[in-house]
Design a protein that fits this description.
With 361 residues, the protein is an alpha+beta fold. Helix content is 33%, strand content 20%. A six-stranded mixed β-sheet has the order 6-5-7-4-1-14.
């Protein structure tokens, strides 16, 4: 590993079409109770992360969106503990003892149901792998990234990606694999309606645990989701937007039903979310062909992901223009997964300090 070499990578979120909710392990392995399948986005939604290992550092530091996050000592957030654990694990693999500076930023809202933590964890794992000159496969990286943020394992690949839940206690069979590449169904598009970019009241981590422990509906969710993964794989293989739309809406509704059934109830959706749901359903019902042209899906947040095709994009944009709660629209297609960047670092090469934006952030 070169002296004070800065490594920078860019990655993107993978939006679940069939979602995972609930863990069978809560010790940091992040093994899920059900498999999932998702679509990796292009760089209209992206995380950029720079890392540098140096003997000049006396401690590890990590900055996310301009703010230094606590990673050592008392009262460290759970996700930061997992990040530190993975960092130490990868240093051990590389036989490196140097401390690290990590600087990361998203170009989309964090903790708002757009898989920001998954994108961040995947990009960090990818950047660390290259900074430490580790010869890890994407499968191996997916197992590592999963331990910081479960869905991150899917963001290590482009296109459509399946996360196998696995059954082993050590988590070695819980990994992601690519189903099809980003060019397989180029007409597929994700239209994201931002209705609230604020941080959610109930963290995803807490929500997972609370639902598993208190929802009477949750056990039936698991078989429904596994069946959904198989059916979505077929719909993707057939490039069938009608089948895909029906499947992802039912899955989203099912997951959020278990959240509402949790005690105390978890309500990530707001009135604008529900208005979008009704509008998409009514648009599909109005089709003379009887075929659905779009499907909504919501992660752990109120912002809608509407999966459709290019030929139907304008119809969705028109639909969203009539909903007053929509504050911003982002259009994204299938992406390639993480990649290395050149001459675009977030760390100053001379000072080995985070670069400060002109607006002071």
């Amino acid at each position: 590993m070169g002296t004070d070499k800065i490594t920078t990578a860019m990655g993107t979120p993978n939006i679940a079409l069939i979602k995972y909710w609930g863990k069978r392990d809560n010790t940091g392995l992040n093994t899920p109770n059900n498999s999932s399948i998702g679509l990796t986005m292009d760089e209209n939604l992206s995380t950029k992360t720079s890392v540098v290992f140096s003997d000049k550092f006396d401690r590890d530091r990590i900055y996310i969106n301009g703010v230094e996050e606590k990673i050592e000592g008392r009262d460290v957030p759970e996700k930061a503990l997992y990040t530190k654990k993975i960092l130490d694990h990868m240093r051990k693999l590389a036989a490196v003892k140097k401390k690290v500076l990590i600087v990361s930023e998203n170009n989309f809202p964090s903790s708002a149901g757009i898989a920001s933590s998954a994108s961040g964890a995947a990009t960090l794992t990818f950047a660390l792998t290259h900074a430490l000159n580790l010869k890890l496969s994407h499968k191996e990286m997916s197992i590592i990234a999963r331990q910081i943020s479960g869905s991150a394992c899917r963001s290590l690949f482009g296109g459509i990606v399946k996360w196998n839940k696995g059954v082993k206690n050590d988590g070695t069979d819980s990994y992601a694999e690519q189903i099809v590449g980003e060019k397989y169904w180029p007409e597929l598009v994700n239209i994201i309606a931002i209705v609230d970019s604020s941080k959610k009241k109930v963290s995803t981590s807490a929500g997972h645990s609370d639902t598993v422990n208190t929802s009477p509906l949750y056990p039936s969710r698991l078989a429904f989701a596994e069946d959904g993964v198989r059916k979505v794989e077929k719909a993707i293989g057939d490039r069938d937007i009608d089948a895909l739309s029906r499947l992802i809406m039912r899955d989203s509704n099912d997951m959020h039903a278990t959240m509402l059934d949790t005690w105390p109830p978890i309500m990530y959706l707001n009135d604008s979310s529900k208005e979008i749901m009704y509008a998409v359903y009514e648009l599909n019902q109005s089709q003379k062909s009887g075929k659905y042209i779009a499907g909504y899906t919501f992660d752990a947040g109120p912002n809608a992901h509407i999966i459709t095709t290019e030929s139907n994009k304008d119809a969705i944009l028109k639909l969203l223009s009539g909903i007053s709660g929509v504050k911003k629209i982002i259009i994204s297609h299938a992406g390639k997964g993480p990649r290395l960047l050149k001459n675009d670092d977030l760390i100053d090469a001379k000072t080995l300090q985070p670069k400060i934006k002109s607006d002071g952030s």
